[in-house]
Amino acid sequence: MTENMPGLAQVRRAIDGVDDGLVLLLAARSRLARVAGRIKARAGAGGRDEAREQRVRQRAASLATALGLEPEVATGILELAIGAACRDQGLTNDLDQGGTGGSGRMIASTMHTRSDPTPARAQQLLRFVPPPRRIAPLLRVVPLAVQQRLLERAMAKVLSGPLNGGALEFMAGRRLGIEVSDLALRWVVELQGSRLVVVDAPAEATVRGTVTDLLLLAGRLEDADTLFFQRRLVLTGDTELGLTARNVLDRLPWERVPLGLRIALNRGARFASAARSAHRAGGGANT
């Protein structure tokens, strides 16, 4: 009925354009918030910035009032954007998404602590840790079936939320490859029913990277955008499938991952990164 009202279609198209712009701006804000979080983490800064929170809310309310918009509408949208960014990082109520607040304090302490440099003595000792390429031959001794079971169990734990919520339905019958280049390991996973399983079939899309960079990504110590931009992670094959999978994993609430696994990923990523830095400082091969 309303479609025949004069001028309504044009106004609705304009509203759709504004809505699209809002979504684009919210996406840009989300990315900038992640950058802010990484900067604060590397500087060793943590905690909720109450003063900044108050300034941002006041600025939004003042601008809304000047434009004839109810201040609650503007601040409400900001609160939703802040909450979404905090959930992405497993934090709560942190305005610029880089610190910790409330119940997220314990989670953040395991996620964002890369700022402290490795002591010189520890760096010297880390040079004795074999780089991954030297460990690769030892891993070939582990039966493929054992590798597959371990990977399937890890995926079931980490991705239980998206699996139960149907967020991974796009993977049904699709095959995504994971390649750990310096360990010479490669798996192809597929969604079968409500489980991600390792299959013996060609991958439609493959994500490739070193074990260190993949651990940094899994441990939320590096952002996927940064790793792909720096070519430390490479996506080949069906780009749409790979990017969809990456976006789903990027939105995975960190607090839903079992605490023990979060700690293991975080510490493993730190150790691997420190060892790589030590080898590079000593002129050794990249790990």
TrEMBL record:
Keywords: Isomerase, Ubiquinone biosynthesis. The keyword Metal-binding does not apply. Coiled coil: none annotated. One of its GO terms (molecular function) is chorismate mutase activity. It comes from the Bacteria. Pathway: Cofactor biosynthesis; ubiquinone biosynthesis. Residues 2-93 form the Chorismate mutase domain. SUPFAM superfamilies: Chorismate mutase II (SSF48600), SCP-like (SSF55718). It holds the Pfam family CM_2. Required for O(2)-independent ubiquinone (coenzyme Q) biosynthesis. Likely functions as an accessory factor. Belongs to the UbiT family. This is Ubiquinone biosynthesis accessory factor UbiT. It comes from Aerolutibacter ruishenii. The gene is ubiT.
